[in-house]
Amino acid sequence: MGVKGGLHTTGAKWFMIESQRHSYHLVDPSPWPISGSLGALATTVGGVMYMHSFQGGATLLSLGLIFLLYTMFVWWRDVLRESTLEGHHTKAVQLGPRYGSILFIVSEVMFLFAFFWASSHSSLAPTVEIGGIWPPKGIGVLDPWEIPLLNTPILPSSGAAVTWAHHAILAGKEKRAVYALVATVSLALVSTGFQGMEYYQAPSTISDSIYGSTFFLATGFHGFHVIIGTLFLIVCGIRQYLGHLTKKHHVGFEAAAWYWHFVDVVRLFPFVSIYWWGGI
User: Fold this and answer.
1) Are 43 and 11 in contact (CB under 8 A)?
2) SS3 (DSSP) at 142
3) Domain assignments of the chain as residue spans, ordered by start
4) Is residue 240 within 8 Å of 177, Cβ to Cβ?
5) How far, in Å, CA of 58 to CA of 112, rounded?
6) In the CATH scheme, what is the code of domain 28-87?
7) What percent of the residues of the chain are helix, what percent strand, and what percent coil, each to the nearest 5?
8) Cβ(245)–Cβ(253) under 8 Å?
9) What is the largest CA-CA distance in the chain?
């Protein structure tokens, strides 16, 4: 086992790296793309079967989800090894994940915008089927000045904490970055808890007219994004604690921070358009 430039690898691997005349990473053959495709196929078919009450649908759906989650874990594990231990993620290679993260966030903006647009469309021109008024007649709404107002500044505050973590990483202050990520995740968990309280106290359900459908889809998908971002930040916190993230190599954290800023800014839109204006 040879050691050179802080990287641990075999002599054959070093010969391959040193003979490479470009700064790009040509990945080794991997079984994870095909396994991920099979897992997604099983999840989709199983979901359709389960929704139509076919026998075995729930089993196929569960197996597909387990297979998909396992593929995600081992694939990301390999990416972390390539970047952290093998040093394949040069500056040129890091551009790909950065651009991919930006495009993914843009697609998520469009995804959530569709639900806000549906709510605005239904409230600006309420049909006769719902009484020509918004909220529809007989539908109870949450008071925006209680839990929704209390929950709204929490996510922007967590965005400030994740920015603190980013500056700490750039300054080489590892412990401070860990503390900042712990603060970010703690605020995220508080926000998710308040979201659960909102749903528990909500006087309507997702089945109550177009109001319930748009309200729970928009706020629910945003809450789901908060949960995904929280898991993303927890992984970054663990990696920071283990010393994986450095001043020049922290693309995974940057992607998590960008995603989290998207999540905390989006929180302002449902409060104004759905909780407050949409509930007047």
Assistant:
1) no
2) coil
3) 28-87, 89-279
4) yes
5) 28
6) 1.10.287.70
7) 75, 0, 25
8) yes
9) 76
Q: Which residue has the tokens 């529809």?
A: 136
Query: How many whole angstroms separate alpha carbon 33 and alpha carbon 75?
Result: 9
Specify the DSSP element, H or E, that contains 214: helix 209-241
Encode the chain (280 residues) as per-residue pLDDT tens digits: 444 444 444 444 444 445 567 677 778 888 999 999 999 999 999 999 998 989 999 999 999 999 999 999 999 888 888 877 777 777 878 888 889 999 999 999 999 999 889 888 888 888 888 888 888 888 888 888 988 898 899 999 999 999 999 999 999 888 999 999 999 999 999 999 999 999 998 888 888 888 888 889 899 999 999 999 999 999 999 989 988 888 888 888 999 999 999 999 998 888 888 888 776 6
The yes/no answer on whether domain 89-279 falls in CATH 3.50.50.100 is no
Do the domains spanning 28-87 and 89-279 agree at the CATH topology level? no
**Encoding tokens for residue 69?**
């989650």
Residue 222 tokens read as 């945003």
Closest CA to 139 of 148, 129, 147, 130: 130
